[in-house]
Amino acid sequence: MIDTIESAIVGRLESQIADLTIKAFPSRPEEFKKLPVGNKGLVLVAYSGSALSEPTNMDALIQDRLIEFSITLQIRDLRGHDGAYDYLEEIRAALSGWSPTSDNRVMYMVSEELIQLIDNLWVWGQTWRLAVRQA
Q1: Going by C-beta distance under 8 Å and a sequence separation of 6 or more, which residues neighbour residue 54?
Q2: Is 59 exposed, middle or buried (0-12, 13-18, 19+ CB in 10 A)?
Q3: CA atoms of 105 and 28, how far apart (whole Å)
Q4: How many angstroms separate the CA atoms of 60 and 44, rounded?
């Protein structure tokens, strides 16, 4: 399920934001490289954890599961048309209220923060949550 949702998020962002590279975070961190020269920006998507509710039915053990995904934006500019601020808004518009699952439960953003500034590269993080039924 997590792979399917992660792939759906990547596909959604690719369909909404055409001028950035968007992909799932590499399985092996050593494969991750800095933003290549000439590349405008990079968006990485990764599953970051879950929290489960108390069971609603002990016979079938039904729970709500809050799944979180991290969206990381790496970009050289902060302001303006090609800056971080505009792309953070585009990501928010693409995912807010969108459903990557068949049960029509929608995604919502939990937090957003500047993670770091490295060699003139702005790295921003957003945390998104989706409630699914765990049976």
Answers
A1: 63
A2: exposed
A3: 30
A4: 36
Contact 56, 63 (CB under 8 A): yes
Q: Measured on CA atoms in the order 48, 54, 58, 64, is the torsion positive or negative?
A: negative
pLDDT digits (tens, 9 = 90+) for 55-104: 666 666 667 788 999 999 999 999 988 899 999 999 999 999 999 988 88
Say which residue the tokens 């039924």 belong to.
133
Tokens 């459903």 label which residue? 99
By the 10 Å C-beta count (0-12 exposed, 13-18 middle, 19+ buried), 47 is classed as middle
